[in-house]
Write a structure and sequence with these properties.
The chain is an alpha+beta fold and 178 residues long. It has helices at residues 26-33, 36-39, 49-66, 117-130, 146-154, and strands spanning 11-12, 16-20, 70-75, 81-88, 103-108, 137-141, 158-165, 168-175.
Amino acid sequence: MTPALSAAPVLETDRLVLRGHTPDDFNDCLSLWSDPEVTRFIGGRPASGEEVWARTLRYIGHWQALGYGFWAIFEKASGRFVGEAGFADFHRDISPALTGMPEMGWALQPWSHGKGYATEAIAAALAWGQTVFTAPSCCIISPGNGPSVRVAEKLGFQELAHTTYHDEPTVIYRRDWI
């Protein structure tokens, strides 16, 4: 395994371990992002290896440049790759602008859906974010992605605006720190 390249803290829940990405995570990330079920509401098409490599490096770079980013998520008991979740600043060309708000995102392997892993991982990330951020957090979700909408609302995100992103309907959610 490549040595840790980021300042990402390791977060643990009852069932999951969240840690910063390394280049060795490429194959797991490729499996995730090349799955049509995963990308159905995130970009609309499976990603190429080149795109996933750039994504993996972007995750590592977020921690280096901004002090926050995405975590790779693993089952604690098995070590199996579950997916990714975290915060980013993507400088999205979206209106209303997300400037100044750490944007939360998540994507999980289809085999892990329906087990509560998304809620568990995002709650851990939000608990960490509560200690770091002062500006509200946000996320963008396709209105057709009911499971992600339910997870966001369960964890305190509220609708901020309906908009379009890359010509697709999108809902921006906002979450204030309590």
